[in-house]
Amino acid sequence: MVAAYARSSRLDDAMRIFEQMPDRNTVAWTSLMAGFAQNGQNYSTLELFKQMLEEGVVPNAFTFVTLLGTCADLALLEGGKQIHGHLFKFCNREHFGSMYVNNALMDMYCKCGDMGSSKSLFEGMIEKDVVSWNSMITGFAQNGLADESLSVFREMVQGKARPNHVTFLGVLSACGHTGSLAEALQILEQMEKDYGISPRSEHYAVLIDLLGRKNRLSEAIELIGKAPGLTNHVGMWGALLGACRIHPNVDLAMKAAETLFRLEPSNAARYVMLNNIYIAANKWSDACRVRRAAEEKGIVKDVAYSWIEVRNERHEFVAKDKAHNQRGEIYQVISQLLDHMMGAGYRYCTSDCYFVGGDDAVVL
Known about the structure:
The protein is mainly α. It has helices at 2-7, 11-20, 26-38, 42-54, 61-74, 77-90, 93-96, 99-111, 115-124, 130-142, 146-158, 165-178, 181-195, 201-213, 217-226, 234-246, 250-263, 268-280, 284-296, 327-343, and strands at residues 305-310, 313-318, 353-357, 360-363. The strands form two sheets. It has a two-stranded antiparallel sheet. A two-stranded antiparallel ribbon has the order 3-4. β3 and β4 form a beta hairpin.
């Protein structure tokens, strides 16, 4: 019942049943934690783990896989390392060395940017499955280590391991980081010819992004037309719109944006990007028209935030947010940095602005 309620996003009911249980064993705790994790309540998941240990309940391999996934989602490297340490204490040798647990560990380290630890785990695995290989290939690609990603893929193929669509998405992303268009096209062909895997919209989106960054926009639009049954995918049109901002092409940007407005009418980022493309082209009336259209539809851009992990605690910062309890010290340091920047000859804009060029700035 705990698991059923949790999977149905009825966390209050799951907690109520859990608290009524006379004997809360490892399965009950793990089911509750998994439910909270699946519903995005990651910090609550970690807090439940602390309570579980305080009650003397011994976690198992499934508990740790849930916790490692939580740390990966939060990018809590120190927390993930602590969970890794608990594995030595609680898991027997069979569970600790299992491919299931090792894959979760690798994924956590990859998502937290610690590719050294992930690589060490990978190289120490006696048995590897496609998830193991994919974690390394995707992890290296996402952390900007494209050459390493491609090297692992070649090793995978040479070792007779069979890749899947996730493998090729990671490899194509690596090609995107290196700008290797020829290799990306060759890999796309290899997917179908050698492995019978039909490219999905995500694969085409990576190629369109790569073509766009090389200012080969006509080829990018042709590729969208050739994608079988995928011509209305937001990822591909989004990549094309992004390319139009890098290499100004107002006409094509309008076409891409109109398609995106139809496919995802509430996505404010598309309106912002088209607005900025118009501004870069000095088309101020068109830029104002896009902003008015977004305002009339009640579309509001999601607030961006940055974060940093200090002493195993995650601190989030939102623009103009003054809620942080150390804001005085933070602002003092920022002020000192700005003084150093000004002393070095830099100038900054005190408002949210879009830079057109030189010293000119237009407040949005």
